């Protein structure tokens, strides 16, 4: 391609991580395009908590404001499109969208996010982000002092229950999983966490509220909020197709990055939930800043042509 057709960077994903990355590049007066499929992970929640100066804000409003601010920079464009293919080419990368558009960029930032693979229990999915939750730092305070439950769904569930006990009386619902070992049981008891062994049949409550878990033996266990350490899946296969190394985290795949947020493929950066095992809107935005600034610096300090 001719030089005039090359972009400095393409960012795949237009939420907290992707827009933060693009903003650094735009402020450096570099040409950047953000391809946004419009499916942010936190679209099920009414409020984002713990985010600097915006505690309790609607995450959709936060993202809309950030996108509007990015559009003010003449070298940046945000495009409502889903990236379907990406490959390395001489000098950078080619990115194709499902609509058939093609972009060539010297650097690529992956920020396409993850989605949650929820347990298949009746009444759970429709309460996700409201009374069925994943992060106590994001949503625990709003249920403080009420009846809390943790559904065993991963190896970290007992650890999650010990943590959540700081927000209120907590029960770990094993849902058919084996009883904890002696050391874990002692730690749960020390934290005041009750353990319920019976499998869960369904969630009960009006609309998106939660009032109880119905157990397989017919009992109802009163619960106001249920925390679930859901497994996560990438929203896109592009990291694998590009050859980025991917590690298995405690809740699902994690793209391997270095301190600059660069993946194992030179010129490809990753930010947000796809590139760290722990997830939070603040971390996503911070990772985006790091990825965007690092991508810009790699453009400036690229090796001189022979």
Commentary on this structure:
The chain is α/β, with parallel strands linked by helices. It has helices at residues 16-27, 59-71, 136-139, 157-164, 182-190, 238-242, 281-300; strands at residues 6-12, 32-36, 76-80, 83-89, 92-97, 102-110, 114-117, 132-133, 148-151, 170-173, 194-196, 200-204, 212-215, 220-222, 225-228, 231-234, 246-249, 252-255, 268-270. It is elongated and about 70 Å long. The longest helix has 20 residues, at 281-300. It is built from seven helices and 19 strands. The strands form five sheets. Strands 1, 2, 3, 4, 5, 6 and 19 form a seven-stranded mixed sheet that branches. It has a five-stranded parallel sheet with strand order 8-15-9-10-11, covered by helices on one side. The protein has a three-stranded antiparallel sheet with strand order 12-13-14, with no helix packed on it.
Cα-atom Rg, whole angstroms?
22 Å
How far apart, in Å, are the first and last alpha carbons? 20 Å
Number of strands: 19
The largest pleated sheet is described as:
7 strands, mixed
Q: Unreliable runs, pLDDT <50, ≥5 residues?
A: none
Helix content: 10-25%
């Amino acid at each position: 391609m001719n030089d005039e057709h090359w972009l400095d960077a393409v960012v795949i994903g237009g939420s907290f991580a992707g827009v933060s990355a693009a903003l650094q590049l735009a402020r450096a007066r570099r040409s950047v395009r953000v391809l946004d499929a419009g499916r942010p992970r936190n679209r099920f929640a009414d409020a984002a908590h713990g985010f600097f100066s915006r505690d309790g804000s609607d995450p959709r409003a936060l993202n809309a404001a950030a996108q509007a601010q990015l559009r003010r920079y003449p070298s940046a464009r945000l495009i409502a499109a889903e990236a379907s293919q990406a490959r390395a080419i001489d000098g950078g990368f080619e990115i194709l969208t499902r609509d058939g558009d093609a972009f060539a960029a010297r650097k690529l930032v992956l920020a396409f996010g993850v989605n949650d693979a929820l347990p298949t229990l009746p009444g759970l999915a429709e309460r996700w982000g409201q009374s069925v939750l994943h992060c106590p730092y994001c949503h625990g305070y709003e249920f403080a002092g009420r009846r809390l439950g943790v559904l065993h769904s991963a190896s970290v569930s007992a650890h999650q229950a010990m943590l959540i006990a700081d927000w209120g009386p907590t029960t770990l619902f094993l849902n058919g999983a084996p009883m904890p070992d002696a050391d874990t049981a002692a730690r749960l008891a020390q934290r005041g966490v009750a353990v319920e062994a019976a499998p869960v049949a369904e969630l009960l409550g009006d609309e998106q509220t939660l009032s109880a878990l119905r157990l397989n033996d017919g009992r109802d266990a009163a619960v106001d909020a249920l925390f679930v350490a859901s497994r996560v899946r990438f929203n896109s296969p592009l990291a694998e197709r590009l050859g980025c190394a991917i590690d298995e985290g405690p809740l699902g795949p994690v793209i391997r990055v270095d301190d600059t947020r660069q993946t194992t493929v030179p010129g490809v950066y990753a930010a947000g939930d796809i590139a760290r095992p722990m997830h939070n809107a603040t971390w996503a935005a911070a990772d985006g800043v790091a990825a965007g600034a690092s991508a810009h610096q790699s453009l400036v300090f690229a090796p001189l042509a022979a």
